[in-house]
Amino acid sequence: MTTRLPPPPPSIFPELLTQPHELSEEGGRFTVTASMSGKEPRSEPQWVTPSSNQQDVPPDYETIGMIFGYALQVLSWILIILTFPFSMCVCLKVIKEYERVVIFRIGRLIFGGARGPGMIFIIPCIDTYRKIDLRVVSYAVPPQEILSKDSVTVSVDAVVYFRTSDPIASVNNVDDAIYSTKLLAQTTLRNALGMKTLTEMLTEREAIAQLCETILDEGTEHWGVKVERVEVKDIRLPQQLTRAMAAEAEAAREARAKVVAAEGEQKASRALKEAADVIQANPVALQLRHLQALNSIAAEHNSTIVFPVPVEMFGAFMKKDN
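== Band 7 domain-containing protein ==
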């Protein structure tokens, strides 16, 4: 059984307006259904989602924008022609050998990419440009207070050398490529040294610099920046720690010196023992050693000469006294 009902009030079912409805009975229940007769199919939404490959701007608005853009270009050219040659002072720009220029025309990057070096032409009112310096920038990283892996606080200075390799990426992908690279250099230095012990910091400077350079180069690749070199300039230790390390090193050196002196005395005593054994075998050798000692003393022009007398010479007198 099917009964056609009038359209419901707008305040109850707004989505059922201007549609015929039917009441059907199924199993003791009444169901209101909208009849599709005379209904036009729904049109697709005009705005597209950001995930689609189409642009976010409706085609009509894009067409209007293009028309106004062309109109502004025509008006700008007319203004340039009317004010010629004075307009050339504004339109012509000289770009140096180490510079490049990224030009935007009505907000869009013009075809051809970066311009320069030499002379370029700028259309007033619709062109904006940015100069990019391609020379190497040297940045002295401020002293960073770093806690090492073995819980020692040190102050580290470093120097970073980098340059702009892609002017278009440095303008389009980041607000300020130079400033962003400087901030990234500071954080990279802190993170890299925070994973090292104090001994590794002092002995592996080249490896630490290479690690920082690799991390920075990977992080700034999409910004159009090339990191040329990173150098760890200085690692300053706390004053108390410096004194403690100096005392430890001095004690270690004194211990090594005492060991060396003891080994020398041991070797000397062995040599003296061997010499005494040789002299004991021949008594004349002792007299020759006495004469050699006198010769050494006399060679220095001394006024006093000490002549050693063997004790055996007094043996006979001692026997007579007894």
